[in-house]
Write a structure and sequence with these properties.
alpha+beta; phosphoprotein; HisK_dim/P_dom
């Protein structure tokens, strides 16, 4: 069974609500009209009762019928029955009066042969216990016809109003849902080559403006992710092309003619270096893929950052001495984290700092113990990084130096991306600041419980 569209559902809902409201209003009006007619009939019968009592007050028995006929002749739709105290019928003004009438006092309604009567029973002499009973009958058929026409009109009004509301509701719903159809059209037109499409948020109603904003934000994220993925794929091909080309060329040259065993051994050693570089690149990419899927779960152990930093500074000391760079560390703090992962992150930052620090420069590592977190910063002197390049430093395969250095895993452009993944796996954040001849990478790590 095909599901109803949202416009059809809204139209049917509008029609149902209108029908219920119209029916309720019609029933109330019908009840009010009926109560109004009863009140008018009560007043009319009470007035006739007073007139009959006054007319029969001092009349002789032989003149009673003439007097009653005179009184009743003024009201064509009024009939009268007089019953004695013994229950015997003494007078009927019409032969069409029903044989059986209600005997209780007050106003009642009876139906006889298609005619509706309002019946009022009352004593002729209220102060006499053996007084004859007067039964006044008022023909209210015209009232009932009016009420029946009113009911028919109510049902007609309910049907027409429901139909009109359904049509207007369908038009209003279709007009109101036009922004959704526009969103659907934009979504249908989205592909890998058209992720730059956006919805006009300013033209959206307030109820859909937030959805349009979220939709545009989603498209922006998808566009950014797709661009990064395309660039990532291109960078992978770029990085692997050089070592593969070197392997093929070297192997082909080696196999062009018979060579001594030492030449083959040298060729294999050269190929091994290229293969090791490729293996390191693949391992780094797998490491980042694990981080993207939340599979990079660090072990938690108590660490003294000062001791871990000193171990790394001791490792890089010979390189710094050869480059004429001064290494220093200040501050200390304790955190809970993965020793090997944090050492790798700090090692990447120290390696970058040493490579870009000129001779006679310095690299400083500082640790600041804060109430809620630990801040570790590594800064080096030298040429700064322009502000427009800072947001892209942690992109994969990105190098701030436009001269792409290929063939060495040290310059694959994955070090900062891996560092960022490690820091985020520990629940921290990393940023880069560069000004006044200094470049500083700041890591903020939360303290363990």
């Amino acid at each position: 069974m095909r599901r109803l569209s949202l416009s059809s559902r809204l139209a049917l809902l509008f029609a149902a609500c209108t029908a219920v409201v119209s029916l309720f209003a019609g029933v109330l009006f019908n009840r009010a009209s009926e109560a109004h007619f009863i009140e008018l009939d009560q007043q009319q019968l009470d007035g006739q009762l007073i007139g009959l009592r006054r007319a029969l007050q001092d009349v002789q028995p032989g003149q009673r019928e003439a007097r009653l006929a005179d009184e009743l002749s003024r009201q064509a739709d009024l009939a009268l029955r007089i019953t004695g105290s013994d229950g015997q019928r003494e007078y009927d003004s019409s032969t069409q009066i029903p044989e059986v009438l209600p005997r209780q006092s007050g106003l009642t309604t009876v139906s006889h042969e298609g005619t509706e009567y309002r019946v009022l029973n009352a004593p002729l002499y209220p102060d006499k216990p053996d007084s004859p009973q007067l039964t006044l009958l008022l023909d209210i058929t015209h009232h009932q016809h009016f009420l029946q026409r009113m009911q028919h009109l109510i049902w007609l009004t309910v049907g027409l109003s429901a139909l009109a509301t359904a049509l207007l509701g369908a038009w209003a719903a279709r007009s109101g849902l036009r922004p959704l159809r526009r969103m659907s059209a934009v979504a249908r037109g989205i592909s890998a080559h058209s992720l730059n499409a956006r919805l006009p948020e300013a033209q959206m109603p307030p109820e859909l403006a937030e959805m349009a904003h979220s939709f545009n934000a989603m498209l922006g994220r998808l566009d950014d992710s797709f661009q990064r993925l395309s660039a990532f794929s291109a960078d992978i091909a770029h990085e692997l092309r050089t070592p593969l080309s070197n392997l093929l060329t070297h192997t082909q040259v080696t196999l062009t003619r018979p060579r001594p065993i030492d030449d083959y051994r040298e060729a294999l050693h050269s190929n091994l270096e290229e293969l090791q570089w490729m293996a390191q690149l693949v391992n780094d990419m797998l490491y980042l893929a694990k981080a993207d899927h939340g599979l990079l779960v660090p072990r938690r152990e108590a660490l003294e950052l000062a001791d871990e930093s000193d171990v790394l500074l001791e490792f890089f000391a010979p390189l710094a001495e050869d480059a004429g760079v001064t290494l220093s560390r200040e501050g200390h703090a304790r955190i809970e984290g993965d020793r090997s992962m944090l050492r790798r992150a700090l090692s990447n930052l120290l390696d970058n700092a040493l490579r870009f620090t000129p001779a006679a420069g310095s690299v400083r590592l500082s640790i600041v113990d804060q109430p809620q977190a630990v801040q570790v910063s590594i800064e080096n002197s030298g040429d700064g990084i322009s502000a427009e390049l800072l947001p892209r430093l942690f992109d994969r395969f990105y190098r701030a130096d436009p001269a792409r250095q290929e063939g060495s895993s040290e310059h694959a452009g994955l070090g900062l991306a891996i560092t960022q993944s490690i820091v985020r796996a520990h629940g921290g954040e990393i940023r880069c600041e560069s000004k006044a001849g200094w470049t500083r990478f700041v890591i903020e790590l939360p303290k363990g419980e």
